[in-house]
Amino acid sequence: MQTLIIVAHPQLAESSTQQFLRQGANLADATWRPLQAPFTLATEQAKLLSAERIIWQFPLYWYSAPAILKSWQDQVLTSEFALRQQSLAGKELGIVVTTDTKASAYQSGAAEQFTLAELLRPYQALANKLGLRWLPPFAIHQFKYQTEIQQQQLLIDYQQYLTLPQPATFEQRQQWFEQRLQQMTTRAPAMQKETLQLLGEQLATNRDNLAELRWTVEQMREDE
Amino acid sequence: MQTLIIVAHPQLAESSTQQFLRQGANLADATWRPLQAPFTLATEQAKLLSAERIIWQFPLYWYSAPAILKSWQDQVLTSEFALRQQSLAGKELGIVVTTDTKASAYQSGAAEQFTLAELLRPYQALANKLGLRWLPPFAIHQFKYQTEIQQQQLLIDYQQYLTLPQPATFEQRQQWFEQRLQQMTTRAPAMQKETLQLLGEQLATNRDNLAELRWTVEQMREDE
Questions:
Q1: For a surface tag, which of A53, A130, A189, B21 has the fewest beta carbons within 10 Å of its beta carbon?
Q2: A71 close contact with B: CB closer than 8 A
Q3: Helices of type H across chain B
Q4: Structure confidence by residue, pLDDT tens digits, B98-132
């Protein structure tokens, strides 16, 4: 699956969060595309057509994307292209949104009063109108305050958000890990190879055990 | 009360709806201010400071304002001005939004899936953050299909939205009419003056009758 990541950020180079995500987006099946005006309609529309999953990635400025994304929407998503031809129907739309505010502030009664799901309704309505499948938004809160381990976990979640079917099953996430491990093993220096291989075998065994357990549970249910 | 109408429309001169509203906004206590980039921060912020009610007026493009309003927000509403100084706290924020879509399309299950109130949440969240009192949005659906009488009614509603306390009581709306009638009477040619005066007296009598009726009802309640 080809994923197009449209990044809307006025100071992209200075954003440590975006630079971190950029490393994560360095995948064979993902294209990193920062927005920069002016836009060439034909190029932008062709990029959209070649993608199966479209991601709008931005920091939340005044409860919405920075102006450049709206500018891009107003210009590129013409009525002819987006509505009459329904050119994007059947594709997926995901939002990767970063905020400096903690997650718990986004609820009724808290500082921001509304959930992110509520604040992102205009994008959801747009997806609905264009026949795009709306993915659950991917929110990153206070990246700077995250520990290194939290950031590593974030990177994995982000990569899975970009490329796995959404919502991803436990098995799909597990397989994704195994594939990544295999790739790492191939590229690893000799002295690490054995450890990685053992880790891979352990993961595979876990998966087999889990599948067996699930089968047993199903049998028990049938017997009842 | 001073009302600042910030109009965000990429083709303002060509919009018959906006030109129509512009006539209505020709009031002593309202300022019509179309957005045009680039913005001078000091000028924009001074304009905001001198207003008691701020209106953002725009056609709904992709379930949000045209990009120029977001661009203005991102630039003019600096953290220093809008958050740390809370410069706009205590003022009011109203939205005048026009759409080509009929009102009934904005609900769950209908074509647009969400209500306008839901789609305008980002502006409501912004009002909340800045300490602005959020007014019920003023929506204009399919202006072109409205009859002349509907449009005249719209103009009155619009003018009242701009200048009356919100929500306006029946008495406030009535008084507003009487004031307008007095102004018209003063400026009218002699042969119309008498008719307008009679109409004014009729309105005043109605109001007195209504006040009397209300007083009677209150008395009856007290007697119970």
A1: A189
A2: yes
A3: 16-24, 41-50, 67-76, 116-119, 121-130, 148-163, 170-187, 190-223
A4: 999 999 999 999 999 999 999 999 999 999 999 99
Query: Do residues A45 and A181 make contact, with C-beta atoms less than 8 angstroms apart?
Result: no
- Point out the least confidently predicted range of B4-18, B118-132, B144-158, B204-218: B204-218
Q: Is B121 on the interface with A (CB under 8 A)?
A: yes
Nearest alpha-carbon partner for B176 in B52, B56, B1, B22: B1
Question: Closest by alpha carbon to A69, among A36, A92, A93, A43?
Answer: A36
Q: Scanning every residue of chain B, which has its alpha carbon at the shortest distance from the alpha carbon of A122?
A: B63
Contact (Cβ atoms closer than 8 angstroms) between residue B200 and residue B192: no
Option in B10, B113, B124 nearest A128 (CB):
B113
Stretches in chain A below the pLDDT threshold 70? none
Closest alpha carbon to A65 in A7, A117, A142, A115: A7
- Kindly identify which residue of chain A lies nearest to residue B121, measuring between CA atoms: A119
Provide the pLDDT for residue B21: 97
Residue B173 forms contact with A (CB below 8 Å): no
Q: Which two tokens stand for residue B142?
A: 């399919």
pLDDT at site A214: 87
Judged by CB atoms closer than 8 Å, whether chains meet at A112 and B125 is answered as yes
